[in-house]
Structures are given as structure tokens and as C-alpha cells.
Amino acid sequence: MKLVIIRHGDPDYSIDSLTEKGWREAELLSNRILPMNIDAFYVSPLGRAKDTASITLHKRKQEAEVLPWLREFHAPIMDINTGEERVPWDWLPADWTAVDEFYDKQLWHTAETMKKGHVYEEAMRVYSGLDEILKKHGYEREGKFYRAVRANTDTIVMFCHFGVECVMLGHLLGISPMVLWHGFCAAPTSVTTLITEERRKGIAYFRMGSFGDISHLYAGGEEPAFAARFCETYDNMNERHD
User: Fold this and answer.
1) Count of CB atoms situated within 10 Å of the CB of 13
2) Residue 30 contacts by C-beta under 8 Å, 6 or more apart in sequence?
3) pTM beyond 0.90, yes or no
4) pLDDT, one tens digit for every residue, the chain (242 residues)
């Protein structure tokens, strides 16, 4: 089975939709998705993800099931430097790399800041939601792998957000989301693909074939958006610092 995870287009967070550029990105994305043989679409309840999916769904004359847990990962924490509420990712490198637990799949959520933010409870909601969908499509979680109860070559597509995408990938691949949040970057409308491997009868594991692919943007002559990235050098004052 193939699992395709798509981040929304360049966002206008003020209206929970897309920028003009984001709509162009979504159009180019739809041209890529249109010829694919897709068995089911799922989408976040947030506007920017729904709007990104809308062009593809309109062209294919299909609908997507809205999954509440597929919204952007929502577990606010208190910033250790400012004392203000913030998302649990986008930490300064000197801060998060100093905490050994953040590198551990089993311990990343045990840091005091994370516990106060109920991060693990929200992660469990995502883990459970993802496993429920995979079970619906024939793959049941058993320990750290999946039981292929109904092995198949279906393709399912999820339109969502970078934060929750990393939590899902962490669950599927056994990686701390903190490492994914800070070491990976999925640009707007990027496509991440995982495919099951069933090397022994009934035992399946999801293997990532591509992460954050934006070839559809290059094919359409559209530069990728800078969203989710930070300044490449400190002196680049036109790029985001914090």
C-alpha cells in the first residue's frame, strides 16, 4: 500500500487559507496528482489544507474525508526563553540539541516543557488516528510493525501540515519527531511517499520512498516557498530568523 502525505500550499495564516503563490502551487500539484490511481483522500479540517486539496478533488470529481486529528499538531508549550506560549517545534539549535531525550523515540516527550504542554497526549491522538486509518485499509499495528490483514496496493492521500506530518513519520519509522521537526523541511505542496514492504507473509513495514518532493513546482517553473525554513546565513535579513 502507498501512503502519500502532502503539505498544504504557501499559507496565509491570517485567514487560514493560501497566498496567491499557494494557489499556483496547488494548481501545479493537482496536475501531478490527477493521473494517479488513488483509492481514498483524507484532509485536515483547517482551511489551508482544504483549499490545497480542493483543486485536485474538483478535477477528479472526488471528495475527501475530513480527519480532525490531521489538523496541524496542536500542543502548545511555554517557550523556555520568553515564557510565552508557542508550538513545540522550531527551537533554537543550541536549546533542543542540549536535551538528549529529544533524540530518543521513547523519551522525546518526557522533557518537563513537553510534559506541561501535554505533547504526548496529542501525539497519541495522532498515532491512534493514523493507525485507525491504516487498519481501515488493511494494515493493523502490531508492536513496531503492521500486520497485513488485507495486503493490497491501494494508494491513499493525506493533505495536512508539516508539524503533524513529522509526528506521523516518527510513528511509522520509529524516529523522534523532534529530529524530524528540526532536521527535515517539507516545503508547501511537497509530496512524501511511503510504501509497504511485506518481506514475510503478513508482516509489513512502511518504507519512505521520497520525502518533501516538489518536482511538480520545478516542472511548472514555480520556485518553492520559503515557509517552514529559517535564514541560511544570519546576515540574510530578508529571511526568517525566529
Assistant:
1) 11
2) 55, 56, 59
3) yes
4) 999 999 999 999 999 999 999 999 999 999 999 999 999 999 999 999 999 999 999 999 999 999 999 999 999 999 888 888 999 999 999 999 999 999 999 999 999 999 989 999 999 999 999 999 999 999 999 999 999 999 999 999 999 999 999 999 999 999 999 999 999 999 999 999 999 999 999 999 999 999 999 999 999 999 999 888 888 888 988 888 87
C-alpha cell at 239: 529571511
Place of cell 510534559: 115
Task: Looking at the chain, list the stretches that DSSP marks H as alpha helix, in order from N- to C-terminal side.
Answer: 20-33, 47-60, 93-96, 112-116, 119-136, 162-173, 177-183, 215-219
Cα 72 from Cα 52, distance rounded (Å): 14
The shares of helix, strand and coil residues in the chain, as percent rounded to the nearest 5, are 35, 25, 40
